[in-house]
Amino acid sequence: MAREPLPPANAHPPRRIRVGDGPLARFLLIGTVLLVTALVLVAPLLAIFAEAFRHGMGAYAASFAAPDTQYAIGLTLFTALIVVPINVGFGIAAAWCIAKFRFTGRNLLVALVELPFSISPIIAGVAYLFVYGAQGLLGPWLAEHDIKIMFAVPAIILASLFVTAPFVARELIPLMIAQGSEEEEAAVTLGAGGWRILRLVTLPNVRFALLYGAALCNARVMGEFGAVSVVAGNIRGQTNTLPLQIELLYQDNNAVAAFAVATLLTLVALVTLVAKAIIERLDAARVKAQGKPGH
Question: What positions does the domain ABC transmembrane type-1 occupy (predicted)?
Answer without folding.
Answer: 73-274
